[in-house]
Design a protein that fits this description.
With 155 residues, this protein is mainly alpha-helical. The chain has a domain at 11-115. The chain has three helices and two strands. It has helices at residues 2-57, 66-90, 130-144; strands at residues 92-94, 101-103. The protein has a two-stranded antiparallel sheet with strand order 1-2. Strand 1 (92-94) and strand 2 form a beta hairpin. The chain is elongated, with a radius of gyration of 39 Å.
Amino acid sequence: MGLFDGIGKKIAQTGQDTVNKAKSFAEIAKINGQIAEEQRALSAFFAQIGEKYYKLYKDAPSGEFIQLCDRITASQIRIAELQTDVQRLKNTKLCPKCGAVCASNVLFCSSCGAQLPQPEPPAEEEAQPEAEQSAATEPEQAEAQPEQGPDGDQA
């Protein structure tokens, strides 16, 4: 029986070691989760500092921040252009007062009642330059006038 007692103790010890390792891994995973949460919070704080700096100094940033502020401004402009493209494709527009999405053919916002800007009518075609107008009318004038022969007589 001594042999089986030794094997049983060895199995029990191995099982206990496995349980301890599992607890250790669980504790490590829990701590790593807390670290990741703190890192996300830290990133958010840095982002808030950067956003506040940009809002305060975007018109006159100091040295090393000039390029970053310019890039932020350019990105904001590009985002606005892309959002306009999406609104055009969806046949909608945003209320300038409350930001609600409205159909492009309505006059007033259904959320706040503000009057919505109407799209500008398409620009009328500008008058053709005189050179183009005269070139366009020359064939018509040539057809209207009878051809003359070499001695000036009508053919």
